């Protein structure tokens, strides 16, 4: 089973990398970009075949290592 994890900054958390990308896009001629927020994406292959157990394993991985839950949110998709 494959887990796809999207990690993004929580609302209100400053995103200097997103701001830098936003500015660079403007300098490259891409007008109309109002806001850029950056994030991270992970794919993890699991041996687990039970979706509920796989979700719990991935949730524990996110809580302990993958996401900084003080400033980041995460979404899990199982495929």
Structure characterization notes:
The protein has one domain (2-78): Mth169, Chain: A (2-Layer Sandwich). It is built from 2 helices and 3 strands, in the order βαβαβ. The protein has helices at residues 16-27, 51-66; strands spanning 2-9, 39-45, 72-78. Strands 2-1-3 form a 3-stranded antiparallel sheet, covered by helices on one side. It is elongated. The model has no long low-confidence stretch (mean pLDDT 97).
Topology of this protein?
Blueprint: E1 2-9, H1 16-27, E2 39-45, H2 51-66, E3 72-78
Antiparallel strand pairs: 1-2, 1-3
Annotation keywords:
Mth169, Chain: A, 79 residues, 2 helices, alpha+beta, three-stranded antiparallel sheet, elongated
């Amino acid at each position: 089973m494959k887990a796809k994890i999207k990690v993004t900054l929580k609302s209100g958390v400053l995103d200097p990398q997103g701001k830098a990308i936003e500015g660079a896009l403007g300098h490259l001629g891409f007008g109309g970009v109002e806001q850029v927020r950056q994030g991270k994406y992970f794919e993890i292959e699991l041996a687990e075949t039970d979706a509920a157990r796989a979700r719990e394993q991935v949730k524990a991985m996110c809580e302990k290592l993958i996401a900084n839950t003080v400033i980041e949110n995460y979404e899990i998709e199982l495929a």
